[in-house]
């Protein structure tokens, strides 16, 4: 369990805090801080009304809610969105409406979920040759039924 500082912004006053819907939930549900109508094919960075300070070595992933995706075709366009540990601005949810009908986002409605995760920092070491593997350079379905020659 890690601790993440959360600052409510003026336009987020009165909204429910991010919360786990059940004890075993992986994601903290977050709600919209604004009303916005998403036309089919449209996208919008939806305000949440809060900012966070994540401890070094961690990130928060912004993930879609499957119910919105299945019922309405509404998803997070950049899924999973990345909240960096050093970001202090408002957390926003880039919602896209891939459905055929307009979708009304209503202030207070749950629109996405936050999943905190540990991140490893890497130091890149430039080399002339990489080690051999069975896969080699094959990818993009190379092991499947319709594998390319
Ligand atoms: O769904 C998201 C994704 C990002 N962010 C914020 C927090 C994150 O730390 C910052 C930058 O995100 P990212 O690195 O994905 O975007 P970028 O296009 O690389 O922008 P930057 O140049 O600011 O890093 O934007 C959100 O609020 N919601
Ligand atoms: Mg970036």
From TrEMBL:
Q: In which pathway does it act?
A: Pyrimidine metabolism; dUMP biosynthesis; dUMP from dCTP (dUTP route): step 2/2
| Catalytically driven reaction(s) | dUTP + H2O = dUMP + diphosphate + H(+)
Its EC number is 3.6.1.23
Domain (dUTPase-like): residue spans on this chain: 16-144
Q: Which cofactor does it need?
A: Mg(2+)
Keyword annotations for this protein? Hydrolase, Magnesium, Metal-binding, Nucleotide metabolism
One of the record's GO molecular function terms: dUTP diphosphatase activity
Which amino acid positions bind substrate, per UniProt? 65-67, 78, 82-84
Q: Which domain of life is it from?
A: Bacteria
> Which top EC class is named for this enzyme in its record?
hydrolase
CDD domains annotated for this entry? trimeric_dUTPase
Which Pfam families does the annotation name?
dUTPase
Q: Which NCBIfam families match?
A: dut, PRK00601.1
Q: HAMAP family recorded for this chain?
A: dUTPase_bact
What does this protein's UniProt record list under function?
This enzyme is involved in nucleotide metabolism: it produces dUMP, the immediate precursor of thymidine nucleotides and it decreases the intracellular concentration of dUTP so that uracil cannot be incorporated into DNA.
Q: Which family does it belong to?
A: Belongs to the dUTPase family.
PANTHER family xrefs: DEOXYURIDINE 5'-TRIPHOSPHATE NUCLEOTIDOHYDROLASE (PTHR11241)
Know the name of this protein? Deoxyuridine 5'-triphosphate nucleotidohydrolase
- Organism, by scientific name, is Sphingomonas morindae
Q: Which gene encodes it?
A: dut
